[in-house]
């Protein structure tokens, strides 16, 4: 549904070939990220704009994995197979990620996240080459998604 918002634009962000407007939303009274491709109309205002420091913007938008904003709620611990260890070790999932090659040649990656939706999509694309070790809630959601995908293939 369309909704009018009065915002104080702060910056444009390019993420995975999509542009986003990071802005102060006066209706919600908080920072929000808007997909530029979803903005259908604009209108300038004579009201004073609210300025948010770059440090505050980074603290809100850049502390957790992916495009979702907010402070991390958990750290995902993922283990990738030895076959993909070198590949994943060279990927940058997040500025605060911690990765280590394990004795068996697999790669363990810790990634902070605030919303599991995008993280789950990235985990699922690796199929059997990755395992969610923690947290248990994320592990169970990935298991449920894999079971649902398997059912589609069994019934289709």
Write structural notes for this entry.
With 156 residues, the protein is of the alpha+beta class. The chain is built from four helices and seven strands; from the N terminus they run βββαβαββαβα. The strands form two sheets. A four-stranded antiparallel sheet has the order 5-6-4-7, with helices on one face. A three-stranded antiparallel sheet has the order 1-2-3, with helices on one face. The two termini are 33 Å apart.
Helices and strands, with pairings:
Layout lengths: L6 E9 L2 E8 L4 E6 L18 H8 L12 E7 L1 H8 L8 E4 L5 E7 L2 H9 L5 E5 L1 H20 L1
Antiparallel strand pairs: 1-2, 2-3, 4-6, 4-7, 5-6
Helix pairs in contact: 3-4
Helix content: 25-40%
Count of separate DSSP helical elements: 4
Rg on CA atoms, Å? 19 Å
Low-confidence stretches: none
- Structural class of the secondary elements? alpha+beta
Distance between the termini: 33 Å
Q: Within the largest sheet, what's the order of strands?
A: 5-6-4-7
What are its keywords?
4 helices, 3-stranded antiparallel β-sheet, alpha+beta, 156 residues, single chain
In short:
This protein is α+β, with helices and mostly antiparallel strands. Helix content is 29%, strand content 29%.
